Amino acid sequence: MVAQRDLYDVLGVARGAGEKEIRQAYRRLARKHHPDLNPNDKAAEARFKEIQHAYDVLSDKKSRALYDRFGHDWQRAADVGAAGASATPGGAGARWGSGTGQRPDFDFSQIFGDDLLGGIFGASRGGGARGFGREPVRLRGEDVEYPVEVTLEEAYQGTTRKIELQAPEGPIRTLEVKIPAGVATGARVRVAGQGGPGLGGGPSGDLFLVVTVRPHALFERRGDDLYVTVPVGLTTAMLGGEVQVPTPAGTRLALKIPAESQNGQRFRLAGRGLPHLSGGGRGDLYAELKVQLPRGLSARERELIEELAKLRKE
User: 219-299 is classed in which CATH architecture?
Assistant: First the structure.
C-alpha cells in the first residue's frame, strides 16, 4: 500500500498557510497539471486529482480542522465522533461501522453537506475527485499586470494608452484602454476580462494597469493637491497686484495678491488641483510667491531705495 502524501506537501504550503496562500498554490499547480494542458498524460491527470483532493480538504474550514487533528483518518466516523458529533441511525450519507458494534452508524452529510462529500467520496458515488467524471474543472485565468507611465498633465485630464498583450503561443492583442483623471503612482486600473485565458471553460482573468506618474518640473503633488512656485516682482509684492499662476492643463489663472505680500506666502485656489479618483470634486492648487529682487539698478532707482531705507531706518 502506497503511503498517502501530506496534503500540505501536495500543495507546497506550510501548515499555517492562510486561505489566500492555499488558493494561490492550488491555482498555480492546477494550471500546470490541468488535463487540458497535458492531453493523454496519465501522470499529470493523477497529479491533478491529488492537487484537487488536497484543495477540497484544506479549503474547507471543517475538513481542514479535522485533517489537522487526525491526518488522513479525518474521514473516518471515529474522527467525527471525537469532534463531538452525535450518532444518527439511518440516513443516506456516507456510513461506517454498521453492525460492528464499534460505533453506531453515522450520516456524514449532516456534518459536511453533500457538496463536500461529493468531492471527498466522489469515487464511491460514480465520479472521481471534484473536476473529473461528471463535471469538468473550470479555472479562472490569471490576472495580468501591465506597467504604464503617464505625465502629470495626463493624470490631471485623463488619457488613453494602446497596449499590446500576448498570451503564451497566442496572437498579439492590441487594446486601447482609458486611464482616468486623478490617477496617482501605484494606482491599479482594472480592465475586466482582458487577463489570462481561463481553462476548462473558465472565465478570463483581469488586466491591471499599474500606473506611475512622472515627476513634474513645476508642480509638486501631495495627494490630489498641487503646489507651484510663482515669481512676483518686488514692487508687486509691496504694492499689490496680479500674478499669473500656471496649471497642468496648460492655462494660466490670474491671482490678485494684496499689498505687502511676503516671500513664500501661499495662496489657495480651491478646486484647481487633481480630480478625486474615488468620486467627484478636485483637490486644490497652492501658489507660493517667490519675490524677485531687482538687478541692474539705475542711479535713480538706487537713490529711491536709499531714501526708503532712511525712512524705515534700516
Answer: Sandwich (2.60)
